[in-house]
Amino acid sequence: MRVLVIGSGAREHALLLALSKDPNVSKLLVAPGNAGTAKLAEQHSVDVASGAAVTELARKVEADLVVIGPEVPLVLGVADALRDAGIATFGPSAAAARIEGSKAFAKDVMAAAGVRTAHSEVVDSPAKLDEALDRFGPNWVVKDDGLAAGKGVVVTTDRAVARDHAAELLETGHPVLLESFLDGPEVSLFCLVDGTTVVPLLPAQDHKRVGDGDTGPNTGGMGAYTPLPWLPAEVVQQIVTDVVEPVAAEMAKRGCPFSGLLYAGLAIGAQGPAVVEFNCRFGDPETQAVLELLDSPLGEALNATATGTLASLSPLQWKDGAAVTVVLAAENYPGRPRTGDTIVGSEADGVLHAGTAVEDGSIVSAGGRVLSVVGSGADLAAARADAYAKIDAITLPGSHFRTDIGLAALEGRITL
After folding, report:
1. Nearest-angstrom CA–CA distance, 365 and 333
2. Strand 362-365 to 356-359 pairing
3. CA 17 – CA 379 distance, rounded (Å)
4. How buried is residue 288: exposed, middle or buried, by Cβ count under 10 Å (0-12/13-18/19+)?
5. Range(s) within the chain of domains with CATH label 3.40.50.20
6. What one-character DSSP code corresponds to residue 86?
């Protein structure tokens, strides 16, 4: 099976690494890829937002399966163009990708499916903002109603901060979603979904804020770990039964069945799981940790999803132990990152590339989240030690990373 992966981040690097271990995958291709993916796959240039361009490339390289990593091409309908051309594609249609592309659409689906989530209100005019803000608090959650790459959310107890963020979004023409605050630890649960068939992967926990102790602004994700020692298996099943399956059924009922990876971000509070958000693709950086522990052939699983045969897929098998991802970020991230610096140590095992490029034969930084460093071990402590030993061997001027990925769980500070 010839597999073309679309995207350029550490998520795509992780997908390629896992696919390379599948004996049924005979050829790997990636577009556009990065400085690290060149070791695993034949690299091609493409406009990932163009369905016509991606389809032309898939035909040219004779891809048997196309795996779309990022959300933007999915929301723009690239998967539809590929399927219209008769090419098996892992990733939802544009209609189904609205589960991430429009938070208002996602809220409507959840309401119809009877799924617990935060109370919300869409504000589309500055004139309505103050009155709407008065209906929320003392914790304000302000979101960009569209795609924001994980960075369009502000959670604050300061009304002025909430108002400033909302006003900034409205000034740029983006509707604002105000939500009630959901308490409890957060969980990311990835599920392969083929219509109404749902197959969960291991639960993970992301660390969104830039600084240790969950301080500073939200980012695209600074690290993750899996599995979650504090989360009982029955709660994972509850999420599948009470959240993912009803949403999948509701989307099928609406004529936009989901096919691909449905990512449920949840808060596990006193009343049980409640949805924070849905994404329409593999999440980054959780994917890097989750796939590290996958023991089943990934290509087989993705192809079964893409071809509508997920129900007959053998149960997924997982390695024992734990995995931890730590993101190495460029100076000034999540602001405008410093780029163009030479990276030393980025070719070691367990180092996945995201914002990298090759200049004059050297690997240099080319984005905000530059590398994802993945450690594994017999337990969470061993996986953390492995990840941090690897990241300590990497040099990038001005770079920074969190030192506490998975630490709260390790120290027993997360309880239900």
Report:
1. 12
2. antiparallel
3. 22
4. buried
5. 2-93
6. T
Please name the residue that has the structure tokens 């087989």. 300
Task: State the amino acid at position 202 in one-letter form.
Answer: L
The CATH homologous superfamily of the domain defined by 125-174: ATP-grasp fold, A domain (3.30.1490.20)
Long-range CB contacts (within 8 A, 24+) of 121-124:
121/177, 121/178, 122/175, 122/176, 122/177, 122/178, 123/166, 123/170, 123/175, 123/176, 123/177, 123/178, 124/170, 124/175, 124/176
The topology (CATH level 3) of 2-93 is Rossmann fold (3.40.50)
CATH 3.30.1490.20 in the chain, residue ranges: 125-174
For residue 267, give every residue at least 6 positions away whose Cβ sits within 8 Å of its Cβ, in sequence order, or none.
182, 183, 184, 185, 186, 187, 273, 274, 276
First-last CA distance in the chain? 44
Whether the pTM exceeds 0.90: the reply is yes
Q: What is the pLDDT along the chain (416 residues), one digit of tens a residue?
A: 999 999 999 999 999 999 999 999 999 999 999 999 999 999 999 999 999 999 999 999 999 999 999 999 999 999 999 999 999 999 999 999 999 998 889 999 999 999 999 888 989 999 999 999 999 989 999 988 766 555 568 889 999 999 999 999 999 888 998 989 898 999 999 999 999 999 999 999 999 999 999 999 989 999 999 999 999 999 999 999 999 999 999 999 999 999 999 999 999 998 899 999 999 999 999 999 999 999 999 999 999 999 999 999 999 999 999 999 999 999 999 999 999 999 999 999 999 999 999 999 999 999 999 999 999 999 999 999 999 999 999 999 999 999 999 999 999 999 98
Identify the three-state secondary structure at position 394: coil
315 CB burial (10 A radius; 0-12, 13-18, 19+) = exposed
What 3-state DSSP class applies to 293?
A: coil
* Three-class SS state of 379: coil
3-state secondary structure of 59: helix
3-class SS of residue 374? strand
